[in-house]
Amino acid sequence: MSASRPSSVRRALAAAAICAAGLSITTGVGPASADPAVSAADAATIAQTLSGATPSAASGADVLTLLSEANAALRKLGIQPFLNPSVAFNCVAPTASNPLGIAPAAGGAIAGPWAAPGIALPKIPFVDIDPNVVKDGQTLYGFVPAGVTSDPTATGMQVAWFNANTGKYGLAGMGKAGQTLTDQWLANIPAGPVKTGATMVLGNLVNALAPAGSRLAPVDTGKGTVLSAVFGTVNNGARSCFFLPMVGITNA
């Protein structure tokens, strides 16, 4: 979405949104719909986990290993991780080395044009697939949580963005990674048996590419320096996992 407010007002509102996102990284304060605010002890664990230090309450080895896996999955998509990762509490079953049930996650972005790297799209009769999911002047946002095994919902993750060169800003929802790829690839195919068949053919490909809980969002940010924050909720089975904002800068 974009607004018709004067440029100075738009910049102020967008900057405030990004600052609020950054503030929530250090304070644990999230949107009103998020899980209850974390305790002081949990906030300390967040800071230690994000800095790479070992949390005092338990060994951080498992969490750091999971975070490495999330970053690897994001880079596999060709997406550059943001300045900071994120964590969600009580998102996975607690263990001796992870008593708070922390699930780490990585978010990032890449300017278009972008096509899924290393992916050879199958030839489908009567279907002309454009491999460029994101076009020039767009930005692709990605999010990969680690430890999520069951992902029953497709909503909850969002991107707040602000183009410092144009003054445009917006808030965009992120969809399931596999579904987003399929929808973009088949955007020009009318609904019907051909599109249904093509969706089934592409299903196994995108499911192997996109881990459970991963999200993508192609956004018309325009060209320029884009400040962004990715945050929100992913469900891991019956667990609701609120991920604190991940903030980054992309040259679109």
UniProtKB/TrEMBL annotation:
Keyword field: Signal
InterPro entries: TAT_signal
Extent of the signal sequence: 1-34
Name of protein: Secreted protein
Native source species: Williamsia maris
